[in-house]
Specification:
Keywords: ANK repeat. Strand 1 and strand 2 form a beta hairpin. Among the domains are: 11-116, Ankyrin repeat-containing domain (Serine Threonine Protein Phosphatase 5, Tetratricopeptide repeat); 314-363 and 375-515, Alpha Horseshoe (Serine Threonine Protein Phosphatase 5, Tetratricopeptide repeat); 528-651, Ankyrin repeat-containing domain (Serine Threonine Protein Phosphatase 5, Tetratricopeptide repeat, Alpha Horseshoe). It is built from 34 helices and two strands. The chain has helices at 11-23, 26-33, 47-52, 59-68, 84-91, 94-105, 121-127, 131-137, 143-167, 171-179, 194-197, 208-216, 231-237, 246-256, 271-277, 281-288, 292-295, 314-318, 321-324, 381-389, 393-400, 417-422, 427-439, 461-467, 471-478, 494-501, 504-520, 528-537, 553-558, 563-575, 600-606, 610-618, 633-639, 643-651; strands spanning 587-589, 592-594. The longest helix has 25 residues, at 143-167. With 691 residues, the chain is mostly helical.
Length: 691
């Protein structure tokens, strides 16, 4: 009996095609399918559908091959009427689903096709909580943006798994995470990344194999952990690497990859000091062989020891605030004239804005060791903050021992001791002082008092440290459980500053601690993320009812930290009929009645969310509405000096603007199965942060 693979008509032929779809080689599958790529193979599924549900690792290549041979990208199953897009989202893990969808989109599928449950591919992605993928299917991104989006989301997902694999001593899984696209520079809630855990007692495999792969995929060999250690420092500290010259080989390779041997840990030891203290003569010789400029750059002097007193020039000594009892002024060490202005750096007086985590620049005068000026015996706010300013840890310690010392009283400038400690440039002395002050009972959430001498009004220590990109100091502050999302007098949170600075590592750190804080919250408090997700999934939900804090769902969505999830929530709520001009209802905060009356557009302007503002304006948000203080969104953009937002609000033509494309997705229906949450998503803020 002759056989024609091009058109298999009997059950045996279809069985062969089915098995090839599940696990066969691409060439064999194409041979069996022949010219009839749209045949029904089994259970109402065509070859394209079987591959989409197979879970095979080469799914993307197989689906692409079938589409190129004539498979109909819009063909549906005869049972649930799913397209290939529906199926890959339903059945594949996020990584494969995302890659497959990006490829399928190149073949111009119809995104409006609904299955038997009246769901489009977008709806299925929302149900699976694949928020990034939902944004792509909503048409809000170009293919290039979508691929960058995918790279970041996969990097975060597998970056966390990479850390866990290293901590679990699972080399195979760790290598797989790197291959899958893990962000090798991701750090966990303890302030450490996979490259640090490689050199702890948790990991017993030889480190070079995994380390080499991580560096090839972008790992930063100078990434510092919570204690200030780099991989180089930790490798020298791990005594188990001494046998078989493993330590020597690791150190040698790290140096070739650009490891900086001058980085010091919190004890003030760099790589050479660590090796010398342990008498590792081979490693000492290796480090000394490096160029002198690498070991001690002439333009960057070593960081001061926590116990080292930084001298003051004679001119400053003569004008000591303690001789005249005049208000405290800050020395030039806190006022580098070349410091660039960054968000959160708005000081108009002698305190100038934050600079990034660097060692102090050399002073312009020849330091002359002097004894500190005499101080009054009381440990008042002025004397404590002055000891911090002059970098005098011994005198600070003496003042902190005073039983009458009060660390929660501001000085004459409205700054508390913890604020002044944050302003220290030297990271070693700053971190040492921050710990001491907190251990003596300083309020971690204290807010700076408005004062003409500075513009830190309402900033907590976390605000100030994040704005200055002090990653190590922020990690220390987070160990004392501060409020993660307090707002200052401009309505900005620490995360807003990290976002404005473009500090991805800081953003990840704050997001991680935000999630941890939510888990510790009183279970009776409303979880805003869950509240939003419930609204998005409930077809009967009214998205124009405020919660107990007077906030509407759209307000809560704009408060979301993660920009991807924020945009998804906002678009979805608008598609469900959310009022884009809803004003926050007055609410009680403690004994104070807050009457902000902000619309979503006000909040977007306050938070410098230009993309969200565009979405709101395209959805008929009124740009000239006033809040309870008589302020319009433009007023906040002007206050923030946000040129992009100011231009948008000033030039936008509401009546002539292209309206937001009406969504084609219905609310999730009760007929659909309970969605399966495959990865943790969302970042929320507390309801007391709305302005």
């Amino acid at each position: 009996m002759s056989r024609f693979p091009a058109k298999p008509d009997d059950e045996d032929d279809k069985k062969d095609v089915y098995e090839a779809c599940l696990a066969g080689r691409v060439e064999e599958l194409l041979r069996l399918v022949g010219t009839d790529a749209n045949m029904i193979v089994k259970d109402g599924q065509r070859p394209l559908h079987v591959v989409a549900t197979s879970g095979r690792e080469d799914m993307v290549a197989v689906i692409e091959a079938l589409l190129k041979t004539g498979s109909d990208v819009n063909a549906t199953t005869t049972t649930d009427e799913d397209t290939v897009l529906h199926l890959v989202i339903k059945h594949a893990v996020l990584r494969l689903a995302f890659q497959s969808c990006l490829m399928i989109l190149e073949h111009n599928p119809d995104l409006d096709i609904r299955n038997k449950n009246l769901r489009t591919p977008y709806d299925v992605a929302m149900a699976q909580e694949y928020f990034e993928l939902a944004n792509v299917l909503d048409g809000s991104m170009t293919p290039e943006e979508a691929r960058e989006y995918y790279k970041k989301s996969i990097g975060d997902l597998y970056g966390g798994r990479l850390i866990e694999a290293v901590m679990n001593d699972n080399e195979t899984e760790a290598l797989d995470c790197v291959i899958q696209g893990a962000d090798c520079n991701r750090v966990n809630k303890h302030g450490a990344g996979a490259i640090h855990y490689l050199f702890t007692d948790l990991y017993h495999h030889p480190p070079l194999k995994l380390l080499t792969k991580m560096v090839e995929c972008g790992a930063d060999v100078n990434l510092r952990d919570y204690e200030g250690d780099t991989a180089l420092n930790l490798a020298i500290k791990k005594t188990s690497l001494r046998p078989d010259n493993t330590m020597y080989n690791v150190v040698d390779q790290l140096l070739k990859w650009g490891a900086d041997p001058t980085h010091k840990d919190l004890d003030g030891n760099d790589a050479l000091a660590l090796a010398e203290n342990r008498k590792y003569l081979d490693v000492v010789k290796l480090l000394k062989r490096q160029k002198t400029t690498m070991i001690a750059p002439p333009h960057e002097p070593p960081a001061a020891s926590p116990r080292q007193i930084t001298p003051m020039p004679p001119a400053q000594q003569q004008s000591s605030p303690y001789s005249s009892r005049s208000p405290v002024t800050f020395s030039s060490r806190l006022d580098p004239s070349d410091s660039p202005r960054v968000p959160g750096s708005r000081l108009s007086g002698p305190i100038v804005g934050p600079n990034r985590e660097k060692t102090p620049q050399p002073m312009e005068y020849d330091p002359v060791p002097t004894q500190p000026s005499p101080r009054p015996p009381s440990a008042g706010a002025e004397s404590i903050t002055s000891a911090i300013q002059e970098d005098n840890p011994d005198e600070l310690e003496a003042l902190l021992q005073d039983p009458d010392a009060n660390l929660n009283v501001p000085n004459s400038m409205g700054l508390f001791p913890l604020h002044v400690a944050i302003l220290r440039i030297n990271p070693v002395s700053r971190n040492d002082m921050v710990r001491r002050i907190l251990n003596k009972g300083a309020d971690i959430n204290v807010k700076a008092v408005p004062n003409p001498e500075h513009d830190e009004a309402g900033n907590t220590p976390l605000h100030m440290s994040v704005a200055r990109d002090q990653l190590d100091t922020v990690r220390i502050l987070l160990t004392y459980n501060p409020a993660i999302s307090p707002t200052n007098n401009e309505g900005l949170t620490p995360y807003n500053y990290a976002e404005q600075n473009g500090n991805a590592e800081m953003m990840r750190l704050l997001q991680e601690h935000q999630r941890n804080a939510e888990r510790r919250d009183d279970p009776n408090q409303v979880n805003q993320q869950k509240e939003l997700q419930r609204l998005l999934k409930d077809p009967e939900a009214n998205v124009n009812i405020p919660n107990s804090s007077g906030l509407f769902p759209l307000h809560l969505a704009i408060m979301e930290n993660d920009p991807m999830i924020r945009e998804t929530y906002v678009r979805r709520l608008i598609s469900l009929g959310a009022n884009v001009n809803a004003k926050a209802i007055p609410r009680m905060q403690g004994k104070v009645l807050l009457k902000e009356g902000n619309t979503p557009l006000h909040m977007a302007a306050i938070r410098k969310q230009v993309k969200i503002a565009k979405i709101l304006l395209n959805s008929k948000a009124q740009r000239n509405m006033e809040n309870s203080d008589g302020k319009k969104p433009y007023d906040y953009a002007e206050s923030n000096k946000d040129e992009q937002m100011m231009t948008l609000l000033k030039e936008y033509k509401g009546e002539q603007a292209t309206t937001e494309k009406k969504p084609r997705k219905p609310p999730l229906t009760s007929r659909d199965p309970e969605p399966k949450k495959l990865q943790e998503k969302g970042r929320t803020k507390s309801s007391d942060e709305v302005q």
